Amino acid sequence: MNFCYNLNIDSSRSVYYIKSGGKRLGLREEEIEAIVFPQEIRIFRLSCKILGKTVNFPGIMCLHNDARGPYKGGIRISDDVDIAETVELARLMTLKTAISDIEFGGGKTGINVNWNCMYELYNRKPIDIEFEKIVRLDIVEYFAQMYRDIFKSHIYIPAPDLGTGPEEMAFIYNETLDPASVTGKPEGVHGWLPGRRESTGYGCAFITKKFLQECLNKNVRGATIAIQGFGNVGSYLAKYLYEDGAKIIGITDSYGGVYDEKGINIPALIEYVKKNGTVSGFSSNSLTNEDLFSLPADVLIPAATGNVINSEVAKKIRAKGIVEAANNPITLDGMNVIEERKIPVIPDIIANSGGVIASMEEYSRSLSALKTKKEEVFSIIEEKLQQGFENSLRVSKELNINICESAIQIALERIYKAMKNRRYI
Ligand code: NAD
């Protein structure tokens, strides 16, 4: 088996770690390539009629690897979606489902929407939450119609990601009328799961507490936290840490940020964001993203988007540790600086896996029609996260590699085994 291509989709941090992990495990070069390279990429154009105008949006669906189970991954709607990013996010899902030991593979959908252009086209002023909602829902409705068959046959099971949420998932269910064809459905829709909405943030708060205890020798009570992003993940993560006594000293989003050295009142901020669509203006102490990354917090949690910590940003970080709530927030060169500076990092494939663990539960409950409680879902998330965290910490110490590398190596072993058993390689 040979790979001869010149596509810029394999130069990311995960690929670098897959390659080094694969070599440590004694895999052949072509076997490593087969794990790195996606099984299928679909490029599509959605032609959507929105509020009387027809608008076209490009999209990418990456079906990365299904050796361990159906392709699983969120639908992202954002203005910086591209092919390389979508492939990387799909690959991270393959690794995430493997380290979490759940029976899914990895996939991802990215739909590119230029919001500035949309506001101009419709003669509206940002931020218009209602307008954005209409656009997102319409886009997902068209997308669901286009790919109904692959959802209905459980080849690829989508979920929410940046820019989409439970309401969009209900539109997919409307098309398939199959509760197991999509996860992250809203309360009351056939097959919905209590706790799914909060699951990623809950899992991330849980792992931050473990990280504080086991790697930073600190209790969550009084620990200082800085968070980038206050959407689904960032807001629940902040809420659960706040309830456990942590001091959230800085939060930023796309429009601005807030700072309070005594700790931000998170329930009040959540209410403010519901009305205003941003954390900006919540208090007179504003904060830029740049300042957020250099706050002297115990833990820095990027929970917004990818590639925000490069080598330059990494040099300025003053936090004692980092938890990757967002997917791929630290670039490879950023990671090299962070490693040199001996700042421990909990990787995305562990830190934000609460969502896909809950999705596994939602999927299996949808197939069996058995109801469950939020507490049960949270306890499954804790068990899976704890196991992934402890295994990765152990291998990291044994092999003297960072936790991001050890988590990927454990995932790699499981993916390789499944691919071998299914004669994919
Ligand atoms: P969201 O759309 O609900 O919220 C994103 C937040 O990040 C918003 O506050 C937004 O203003 C902010 N943001 C976006 N770009 C930014 C930038 N350049 N600078 C500063 N702030 C910015 O998205 P989400 O669902 O909370 O997802 C956040 C991250 O977590 C993404 O990387 C996503 O892939 C990852 N993730 C989400 C889930 C999930 O269940 N939602 C699961 C796993 C991983």
Written overview of the protein:
With 425 residues, the chain is of the alpha/beta class. It has two domains: 14-176, Rossmann fold (3-Layer(aba) Sandwich), CATH 3.40.50; 199-346, Rossmann fold, CATH 3.40.50.720. The chain contains 17 helices and eleven strands. The protein has helices spanning 13-24, 29-36, 83-99, 115-121, 129-146, 148-152, 166-176, 196-214, 232-243, 266-276, 289-293, 311-316, 332-340, 348-351, 354-368, 374-399, 403-421, and strands at 40-50, 53-65, 71-78, 106-112, 156-160, 224-228, 247-253, 256-259, 299-302, 321-323, 345-346. The strands form two sheets. The protein has a six-stranded mixed beta sheet. A five-stranded mixed beta sheet has the order 1-2-4-3-5. Helix 12 links the parallel strand 9 and strand 10 (321-323). Helix 8 packs across helix 9, helix 8 packs across helix 15 (354-368) and helix 8 packs parallel to helix 16. The radius of gyration is 20 Å and the shape is globular. The N and C termini lie close together (9 Å). The mean pLDDT is 95. The structure holds nicotinamide-adenine-dinucleotide. Nicotinamide-adenine-dinucleotide (NAD) binds next to helix 9 and strand 7.
- The CATH architecture of the largest domain is 3-Layer(aba) Sandwich
Largest sheet: 6 strands, mixed
> What is the tally of helical segments?
17
* Tally of separate domains: 2
Strand content: 15-25%
Strand arrangement, largest sheet?
A: 8-7-6-9-10-11
Structure class: alpha/beta
The hetero compounds bound to this protein are: nicotinamide-adenine-dinucleotide
CATH superfamily of the largest domain: Leucine Dehydrogenase, chain A, domain 1
Helix content, binned percent: 40-55%
The fold-level CATH name of the largest domain is: Rossmann fold
